[in-house]
Design brief:
It is a single chain. By secondary structure, this protein is an alpha+beta fold. The chain folds into 3 domains: 79 residues; 117 residues, Phosphorylase Kinase, domain 1 (2-Layer Sandwich); 131 residues, Transferase(Phosphotransferase), domain 1 (Orthogonal Bundle), CATH 1.10.510. The protein has 11 helices and 12 strands. The strands form 3 sheets. The protein has a 7-stranded antiparallel β-sheet, sandwiched between helices. A 3-stranded antiparallel β-sheet has the order 8-10-11. Strands 9-12 form a two-stranded antiparallel ribbon. The termini are far apart.
Length: 365
Amino acid sequence: MRDIKLDEIQPLNFPLQLTPPPLGGRVDFPKRSELEADLQALYQQWKEQPPHKTGYPLRFLVSFCLQMEKQSPGWMNWLRVWLQAQEFRFRESVNFHYQQYLTHPHIRKKSFAAYWEPHPDMDPEVLNAMLAERILQNVSALSLSRRAIVVESELLGQPVIIKRYAANPIKWKRRWEHSRARRAWTSAKIMQDIHMPAIHGLGWLEVYENGTLQESYFISRQLLEMETLRTWLRREFPHMNETEKCQFRHRLRAEILNLQQHGLMHIDLKLSNLLVKGKEVQDLVFYWIDLEDLRPGSFSLRNFIRNLYQLNGSLPREIPYSERKAFVAGFQHLYPFTQSPRLLRYIQRKTRKRHRDELRRLQGA
């Protein structure tokens, strides 16, 4: 296997065929450690090919190990362990870089801390004055809530989106976290590093008083020709046929699982936190926002179920129960419990509770 060269063969254009060795003298079977080293070397070789070939290395390993399993048991076990080790290393790498970005060198001056990518040496006080002025100038905000306000403006000749956050919650486990703005910028950088569609974070600013965080700002590039997935779905759903509805459910599930596979989780998964670009279902490109809620971490059953009822509650009322049920059931190949009627009842109950709590909050109760 060590003599295999990428430019000499095209092993994955057709199903892998292993022919038996010729009759006559036989050589000793190589050591297992040598074969594993060869397979890993081949995997790395194929992984460096152009983007359209990124799935080839894994398909080759699976095909090879399936065939070898017929002759010598243990190959599929080795593959499972190897894949788990690769996934663990990748998650560790994502978490490591996330922590590095959180502590990225920045400027600290009096009651301000800031990092501004276009001008890293910019005075935080000057940046704070500019951002506060932009917030006051924009009468109509893109989004307004108790914890944040989002406006569209121009900063140093560049169109930007500015998101101002209130201070972290008083809860002990949230109070000592990094600011939401810094976490949003960090998540944007991580998404870019792992080549997922993401908004481009330009910087962040934190404002302190007596050592306590008062507010923070996250600045990103303007997103053109995009809308929230909720807005898109409300407009397009009545015109979809059954095939398009099935394709859409599959695309949305794939986006959620893609986050998990990259060692990330979104703790506020709603349609309004997904921007889309494109008209047809097959052409949609998804962009995650509210990146302060995107964090590295291993799969959590609790968080997965919470995502399901968060998503269910954000769907337009026009979406029938049958479509909601079909979406959840689509996870059955990974999580068989998603077909349980008990889970569906739990999602409905939690959705109603969240809606009641939201109504009380809006009414000031």
